[in-house]
Amino acid sequence: MNLKIPNTKYQILNTAELKKFVSEFNFPNPNWDSLPPNFPATPKEDLSVEEKCLFEAIKLAWTANEGGRSLLLRKLQMTLVIFIGLISLIGLISLMKSSEAIIRPVQAATQQIDAVIESTMSAILKK
Fold it and tell me: Which residues contact 82 (CB under 8 A, 6 or more apart)?
């Protein structure tokens, strides 16, 4: 049975090839260049329970090695960029909303100063 691999163009992975990869994988000296297409998201529905466990162990070893670390680092960087962007956007929105509250007291103080000046001028002019 052939499985169509998602996220790759026209690559088909034979279940027998995946089973062969899992059974022949060398844990003490892994060859990361011989990974199946679309690894680590390779579909494993047709594998036996033992083969699924071995495939998960291969994914764990790959994650602990350079390939997995670099993928994890890229995902972490993207997540960090998105997080910082969201925090900045929330801060900008709250700053824009709070700017109205900052302006109102200044306007009120200006009106009070105008009233003080007016009353002072009228007192001076009365004399």
Answer: none
User: What are the backbone dihedrals phi and psi of residue 10, each rounded to the nearest 5 degrees, phi first?
Assistant: 60, 25
**CA 42/CA 4 separation, integer angstroms:** 10
Residue 59, pLDDT above cutoff 50: yes
The predicted model scores a pTM of: 0.47
- Burial (CB count <10 Å: 0-12, 13-18, 19+), residue 113: exposed
Tell me how far CA of residue 31 lies from CA of 15, 43, 45, 104, 122, in angstroms: 20, 20, 24, 68, 94
Q: Residue 4: which H helix or E strand, with range?
A: strand 2-4
| Element holding 12 (H helix, E strand) | strand 12-14
In the predicted model, is pLDDT for residue 101 greater than 60? no
CA distances from residue 53 to 25, 49, 58, 69, 126 in whole angstroms, order as listed: 13, 6, 9, 21, 98
Query: Cis ω on the peptide bond leading into residue 40 (within 30° of 0)?
Result: yes
Q: For position 1, what pLDDT does the model report?
A: 41
**Where do the domains of the chain lie?**
2-64
